[in-house]
Amino acid sequence: MRGKIMFLGGLAAGFVLGARAGREKYEELMVRGRKVLDHPTVQEAAGVAQAQANRLYAEGKDKLGQTKLGEKLGSGNGSRQGMTPADEPFAGTPASAGAKSGSSGSSTKASGTGRVS
């Protein structure tokens, strides 16, 4: 019993001391990290990387729009009823299939509910 109490006491002391040392190291790392992130060279590199990512995204979007799949995904975007601008990123997902205009979309949704295959 005495050994268990000594072990728990040592564990508690180690936890307290480790937490203090850990917090100091954490704060030190955070200060160094902020200094690095605020450095003008890093800021410039981040801007260049963001610009390149935006350019690559636009190129990929344009290339996808020129394919048959892109045409399929892009067709009918203006004719969706009951959709808000926030719904547009999810316009082609199965969950929004019931939000499409027309009676066939609602009958497909109704006939598919409750069935387990």
Description:
With 117 residues, the protein is an all-alpha fold. It is 68% helix and 0% strand. It contains four helices and no strands. The protein has helices spanning 2-38, 40-65, 68-74, 103-111. The longest helix has 37 residues, at 2-38. Mean pLDDT is 73; it is low at 96-112.
**Quaternary organization:** single chain
Could you tell me how far the N terminus lies from the C terminus, measured between alpha carbons in angstroms? 60 Å
What coarse outline follows from CA principal-axis ratios?
elongated
Q: Provide a count of the helices.
A: 4
| Major sheet | none
Give the tally of β-strands.
0
Strand % is under 5%
Label the structural class: mainly alpha
Helix content: 55-70%
In sequence order, what are the helices and strands, one letter per element? HHHH
Task: Provide a short characterization of the protein structure.
This protein is mainly α and 117 residues long. The protein is 68% helix and 0% strand.
Question: Helices, strands, pairings?
Answer:
Layout: H1 2-38, H2 40-65, H3 68-74, H4 103-111
List keywords for this structure.
about 120 residues, mainly alpha, 4 helices, about 70% helix, elongated
